[in-house]
Amino acid sequence: MSLSVTTTSPDAVTDLAAELRELLGEKNVSLEERVRMRASADGSRMSPIIVEQLPLGLADVVAFPTSAEQIGQVVAAAVRRGVPITPRGKGTGNYGQAIPMSGGLVLDVTRARAVVEVGDGVITAEAGAQMVVLEQAAWNAGQALWMYPSTAQSTIGGFLSGGSGGTGTIEHGSNDRGFVVALDVVHADGTPDLVHVEGEAAQAYVHNYGTAGIIARATVRLEPLRDWRGLYASFPDLESALPAVREIGRMQPPPRLVSADHPEISAALPPDEAVPVGRTSLRSILSADMLAEATRIIEETGGRVEVVREGPQASMRISMLSYNHPIEWFQKATDRPTFHVEVSGEALFERLADVEAVYPDGMLHIEAGHGVPIGMLAGRYESAEQVYAGIAALNALGVGVHNPHQWNVDFEVERTVELARRTDPNGLLNPGKLNPDYDGPRKGAIR
Question: pTM to 2 decimals?
Fold first, then answer.
């Protein structure tokens, strides 16, 4: 793979690396090419549009702070030397948001992973703590996270900076609807200070890829733990499964997740007797006291329950088969180039055939969302222009679409730009991602 050339001053990088070794220790700073390459890539190969543009940048130095306070100190050291800073969690994003387009420093937070406190209805952790670890800590206290990403190994900092929702959104919506209680963030002002923000002030740092401040510590909401079960069912095809998806998603209390796939997508999922080949797979995480009602719905709408599984691993496995993961499994199972777009709206239920026909070999993964169905529409990839034309066609059908095949901040852009003017006056935080003049196709965003 060829590597892009950066304009970061070599002397600035050398001096920064020396200071960071003093601060973090030799093992937590690297100039090695293999480490820099690994820290400069994410899951972008899921997007054929971005693949055509790779590589997008290479880190000059990688730092691994081990606490929230060290995150602040690392950022301050880089800012004093004018070195760009790209924050990184587990690198599970799929669209380039963690790729260091201007080179410089990649700030890997995965070693700052302490769970600080589990309280009544809240949990506090450092940015590098994995969501699965937070969930386990919450369960041990008789509570559960409001939501966690479909990639449960994601870090809390990465999820909040980039993610749009997560498992649990049927009841609580995406993570801009009260999930975040408070944040400790670092600004690019040359100081190592952790700035504590709460409520709406904290929300301004969510979804902006660290372009206005880097999350060092987060406090998010918990709810009382329920006796979750993992239910697998199947239907002859996706159309016949849609009434069950709708009705199960409306049950009270709501499931944590209910999703279903086009049979060809279901067939590409990891082998499991609960996912019969040739049929649409429906999967749900729901409380034990709702199993009878869900079973009734499934059977009355022409499906059959394949299995019900207990324990946290069962729930986590189903979560990992939601959002864009089924499309990723399909991409691995097929030789034909495939892409997807994020879709939403009642038209997914009411005009399924028309929706899938927009793209060649169109196939839908659908989930019950917070008040509106959401999903991933996959199709055979021919060109970026084909994808964009399809977005317009979907809008005409009444489908909300978010184009994920770009790395630009596209949530509350004006708010983020205004915040960044104060918090990042020299434009050093994740350069290339905050583009207020970007006018790419993002009509009807599903967030």
Answer: 0.93
Residues 219, 243 within the same domain: no
Residue 242 and residue 143 share a domain: no
Same domain as 232, residue 221: no
Please report, as a single letter, which amino acid is at residue 341. V
Q: Within a domain: residue 160?
A: yes
pLDDT digits (tens, 9 = 90+) for 34-63: 999 999 999 898 999 999 998 999 999 999
Tokens 């409520």 locate to 199
> 365 and 352, same structural domain?
yes
Structure token pair of residue 444: 């009807």
